[in-house]
Design brief:
This protein is an alpha/beta fold. It folds into four domains: about 110 residues, Response regulator (Rossmann fold); about 110 residues, 2-Layer Sandwich (Beta-Lactamase); about 90 residues, Helix Hairpins, CATH 1.10.287; about 160 residues, 2-Layer Sandwich (Heat Shock Protein 90), CATH 3.30.565. The protein is about 45% helix and about 20% strand. It contains 15 helices and 17 strands. Strand 1, helix 1 and strand 2 form a beta-alpha-beta unit. It is elongated. The chain binds adenosine-5'-diphosphate. The site of adenosine-5'-diphosphate has 21 residues, from helix 14 and helix 15.
């Protein structure tokens, strides 16, 4: 049997309701359920002949009998007058009748939700468990107290758990089974002679907890305690002890009944898991820091390489230009075409190196944040891009005034310039680029700046990818670029403690956003 598996019988003629309750229960994390369903009371009773459900969800009105009728018949069938583990599902108008009834748990059908249903089912399972443990306790006591019950002793002495019966103040011991000798490594006789001698073995660090448990017992409370004991050979064991008060008919507290188990193995397993988790966390931290170092080294490497590549590239560019100027007339058309290709390729390489340098510089320089007026900065960036905007006949509309954000001036200027350049670049041929810029603050303390264009748009599956280095969605001929621009946007914004994102549909323009801390306070 699967541990923690409970059987629930749902008796309800409404199929949809049954399926809903079934779904609620199957989502439970605490128990796994075997769910039986009956659409009538008689079918339910029939099922109860074969299995004994842990919980019954019972509709108040059934086609063949009332809920009360079902309960009466089931009690007769199992020959018991005890309260059954039943939750009655009722509609508003039945409510009064139930409250007047036998005190069963009930739920109003129209308000039942997953959490509520599971809560009531858990409570019922727990209640049934306690009731049955108390029942066993009573039977044990009766049997233990009558000396003639040899069979009881035989049974109890074969249990792995300790069964004990004492006076509420634990000054007297009425019964202890053999498991005490196996677990405590002390004789039962010693405990009968000195009823509190079991406490001598308790670990000094857990002593207070055990004394608190004894104090609770004096007041008739159910106790549930974990503590360690030290065996005569110095070994430590973990014990889990549960104790119930046993009262007589007049309500006087006469005995305490307890079950104690050796849970050392479980505790060791838990400890191992804890240790493993800690080691794993430690490893993750170490790996992260190694990765960080490797990343830093890689960035330093990129920087150096890009830097060092520039000198020979400049030489190539310079000589190619000199060749064109001084010897251009000596070469034929093809020769001149080759020179111009060398010059444009060198220019592309120059752009790439420039972008890579900017990207790696972002991780190397300190980014100090200060309040920056987006209005002023936007003006500067647009002035800087003026030639490009004019060349493309672009229209840029800014929804002023823009707020103040906490940022690093140069980094933010570069981020905005990159977004604007893309907004006017990724446009259908012959169309006028139209860019809309505005800001909003939906999350308190944060400003989101939007750059919306009327361009070619981006498919959802590429939203993440395009923010990575060298990720481009188009050929270089159609839309020139290096694939580093948005990586700079992301890294720059993240270094300023913010976030980036995009919303777009192919053919319907793109809306890029960056989110930074509000700088107005
Ligand atoms: P680059 O612009 O140099 O190609 P980016 O890193 O700036 O590189 O952009 C990466 C890719 O994301 C672009 O190649 C393009 O495919 C896509 N992209 C960026 N901005 C837009 C935009 N506003 N509209 C459509 N696609 C875009």
């Amino acid at each position: 049997m699967i541990r923690n598996q409970k059987t629930v019988l749902i008796v309800d003629d409404n199929d949809e309701d049954r399926q809903t309750y079934r779904r609620y229960l199957l989502q439970d994390r605490q128990y796994t359920y075997r769910i039986l369903q009956a659409e009538s009371a008689n079918l339910g009773l029939e099922l109860c002949k074969q299995v004994q459900p842990d919980v019954i969800l019972l509709n108040f009105v059934l086609p063949d009998m009332s809920a009360r009728g079902f309960i009466k018949q089931l009690q007769a069938q199992i020959n018991s007058n005890n309260r059954l583990p039943v939750v009655i599902l009722t509609s508003q108008q039945d409510e009064k009748m139930i409250v007047d009834g036998e005190g069963y748990d009930y739920l109003l059908k129209e308000t039942i939700d997953a959490v509520g249903l599971r809560f009531v089912v858990h409570q019922l399972i727990e209640q049934t468990r306690l009731e049955s443990e108390l029942d066993i306790a009573k039977q044990f006591i009766q049997a233990a107290l009558s000396e003639s019950e040899k069979r009881f002793r035989l049974f109890a002495d074969n249990l792995e758990s300790i069964i004990w019966i004492s006076s509420p103040d634990s000054s007297q011991n009425f019964y202890i089974n053999k498991a005490y000798e196996t677990i405590w490594h002390r004789s039962c006789g010693s405990l009968y002679n000195h009823p509190r001698s079991w406490i001598d073995a308790v670990h000094p660090d857990d002593y207070e907890r055990v004394l608190a448990k004894l104090e609770q017992q004096k007041h008739g409370q159910i106790t549930n305690t974990e503590f360690r004991i030290i065996l005569p050979d110095g070994q430590e064991r973990w014990i889990w002890d549960r104790a119930f008060p046993i009262k007589d008919e007049t309500g006087t507290l006469n005995y305490y009944f307890g079950i104690a188990e050796d849970i050392t193995e479980q505790k060791l397993a838990q400890e191992q898991i804890r240790h493993l988790t800690e080691t794993l966390e430690q490893q993750v931290m170490e790996r992260t820091s190694q990765l960080q170092t490797a990343n830093n080294e890689l960035e330093a490497f990129t920087y150096t390489i890009s830097h060092d590549l520039r000198a020979p590239l400049r030489a190539m560019q310079g000589f190619a230009e000199a060749l064109a100027e001084d010897y251009g007339q000596l070469l034929d058309e093809v020769g001149n075409e080759y020179i111009s290709r060398i010059i444009s390729s060198a220019q592309r390489l120059e752009n790439l190196i420039q972008d890579l340098l900017s990207y790696s510089r972002l991780s190397r320089t300190d980014v100090y944040l200060q309040p920056i007026s987006l209005d002023n900065l936007m003006f500067e960036v647009i002035t800087q891009l003026d030639a490009d905007l004019k060349a493309k006949n672009a229209q840029v509309i800014i929804s002023a005034p823009l707020p103040v954000v906490l940022a690093h001036r140069n980094t933010l200027a570069q981020v905005i310039a990159n977004l604007l350049t893309n907004a006017i670049k990724f446009i259908r041929v012959g169309e006028q680029p139209q860019v809309l810029i505005w800001a909003e603050s939906k999350t308190p303390g944060w400003i989101r700046l939007w750059v919306r264009d009327n361009g070619i748009g981006i498919k959802g599956e590429h939203y993440k990818r395009i923010f990575r280095v060298f990720e481009r969605l188009h050929g270089i001929e159609r839309y020139p670029g290096t694939g580093v621009g948005l990586a700079i946007v992301r890294k720059g914004v993240e270094r300023m403690g913010g976030r980036v994102g995009v919303e777009s549909l192919p053919g319907q323009g793109s809306s890029f956003w960056i989110e930074l801390k509000d700088g107005s306070k």
